[in-house]
Amino acid sequence: VPRISIAYYLSELVRNRVLRYKNVRFYRARKVEFHSKEPIFFQSDGEIFELNKAIIKILPKAINVICEEAQ
User: Fold this and answer.
1) Which pairs count as long-range contacts for 26-32, CB under 8 Å and 24+ apart, including other chains?
2) What is the DSSP letter of 23?
3) How does pLDDT run across 17-35, given as a tens digit for each residue?
């Protein structure tokens, strides 16, 4: 995916419209691993890291989401 497309997809993600594109996939996971030959930039909790490998684990019940009730 060209880098310019990533910026576009991120803007569509914010608008909750990204899943309508054929080259965008949605997955559910408890753990995701990224591996790259070249270092990639990764942001976590305001810190920026340059990594070749990242493992992200989702902890059950670790995030509380508060939103308005649907009308």
Assistant:
1) 29/58, 30/57, 30/58, 31/55, 31/56, 31/57, 31/58, 32/56
2) T
3) 877 877 777 787 888 898 8
